[in-house]
Amino acid sequence: MTDTNPPAFSLVDIRGLHKRFGATEVLKGIDLQVRRKEVVCIIGKSGSGKSTLLRCINGLETFEAGSLSVDGQALKHTDRDAMRNLRQQVGMIFQSFNLFPHLSAGRNVMLAPSLVKGIPRDDARTRAQALLERVGLGPLFDRLPEQLSGGQQQRVAIARALAMDPTVLLCDEITSALDPELVGEVLQVVEMLADEGMTLILVTHEMAFARKVSDRVVFMHQGLIHEAGTPDEIFNHPQSPELQQFLSALRD
Question: How is residue 75 annotated by DSSP?
């Protein structure tokens, strides 16, 4: 089952995307359109190409064929200005929090707006404080990452991504490095962003969460999108043997 009626204008528009690492073709022709304010969860086995797809969307990986645009702007790796504009539009949160260890939580959030957008220091600090409060960490502005739990570090990483006012936010297995008791506090923040209308593309293995927050769920298998549909369609009425087997293995 594929999305047979792509919207007339998609915020993220991916057509015929192919990506290989050496002799291995990781993405074998991906077509995916994501509307503004849509929450799309990508599920599938390890090695199915999910994280590579996200890294292509924000320009961290080049691709051999196909097209990819965000808010009408085509991704062109040879155009430095285009890449800079893309990276300001596309925020990304990784499995490992990637915070600068020598900077406080607040300064991690302040850094990109100050360097990339030239926002005055006082304004950047005020905004960083507001964002930390938004993710429930207001009092921890001056804490270093090593003084924070994994869940708190990941919430700082979310605040840092939001500091650039991205048009779309990519989340790559953002709870996989966390202890189970810390997963909920991070997912709660992501759910808040979804409720506020942030466009989100999430690679996740948290199926209950995907069912709860997604407008659409995409199942990837061996570098292709095998099925895409509503959470009800994907989880309750899987069509392909591959998706049926994937969901069955999760229940075992």
Answer: P
- The b-or-e profile of 32-58 (16+ CB within 10 A means b, else e) is bbbbeebbbbbbbbeebbbbbbbbbbb
Burial of 248 (0-12, 13-18, 19+ CB in 10 A): exposed
Is the sign of the CA dihedral 98, 119, 76, 168 positive or negative? positive
State pLDDT tens for residues 122-133.
899 999 999 999
Long-range contacts formed by 112-115: CB under 8 A, 24+ apart:
112/160, 112/163, 112/164, 113/163, 113/164
Convert 3-55 into a string of H (helix), E (strand) and C (coil).
CCCCCCCCCEEEEEEEEEECCEEEEEEEEEEECCCCEEEEECCCCCCHHHHHH
Distance in angstroms (rounded) separating the CA atoms of residues 68 and 52: 14
DSSP 191-230: HHHHHTT-EEEEE-S-HHHHHHH-SEEEEEETTEEEEEE-
Q: Which of 183, 108, 92 lies closest to 145, judged by CA?
A: 108
DSSP-assigned letter for residue 168 = E
Structure-block tokens of residue 202: 């999430």
Task: Give all domains of the chain, ordered by start, each with its CATH number.
Answer: 12-251 (3.40.50.300)
- Per-residue pLDDT of 170-212, as tens digits, reads 999 988 888 888 888 899 999 999 999 999 999 998 898 999 9
3-state secondary structure of 169: strand
CA 14 to chain centre: 15
User: 33 near 6, Cβ under 8 Å?
Assistant: yes
Q: What is this structure's pTM?
A: 0.90
211-236 in b/e burial notation, b at 16+ Cβ within 10 A?
bebbebbbbbbebbbbbbbebeebbe
> For residues 209 and 190, what is the distance between their CA atoms, to the nearest angstrom?
10
